[in-house]
Fold this sequence. Notes:
Layout: E1 6-9, H1 15-32, H2 42-57, E2 63-69, E3 72-83, E4 98-107, H3 116-130, E5 136-138, H4 145-153
Helix pairs in contact: 1-2
Amino acid sequence: MATPWRLRTGGVDDLDLLEPLWVAVHQRHREAMPELAPYVSDAETWRARRALYEQLIASPDTLLLIAFVGENAVGYGLTHVLPVAGSWIEDTWVTGDRVGEIESLSVLPEYRGSGLGSELLDRLERHLHERGVNDFILGALSGNSDALRLYQRRGYQPTWLYLSKFAGRPRNSR
């Protein structure tokens, strides 16, 4: 059966297409872990994320893939390469000199479970392999169980856990 989407490479000129897709990720974070509130607004999360993407896309090793159904963007993935030297990786794990980071993966709710996320990951990982990068990292919110299941099925393992204590967050009574 043919997939309902088509993928194409994107660039800086396509960033505005990503806003609703990133905001969907941000909203999923809020839904998955409301106890981590307060969250920044949708406008603020996109402002910061867009600036990050502009910076990353400037690197020749970065790949942005956008999935379309018709003319509508329904998902995307972005990966880039970073040096292991000077990172949190080098003092603990044996890896190559560079690691590929799956910076973002977003699939609109109505396309989750369709295989689109797996196809995006396949293509992002292939891109990294073609650049001689065979070690990968990605981040996921600990409460985003659907994303965690996808990543773990594909061989990703929990590696590093950040804990936070933000002044604006009410203290948990536990």
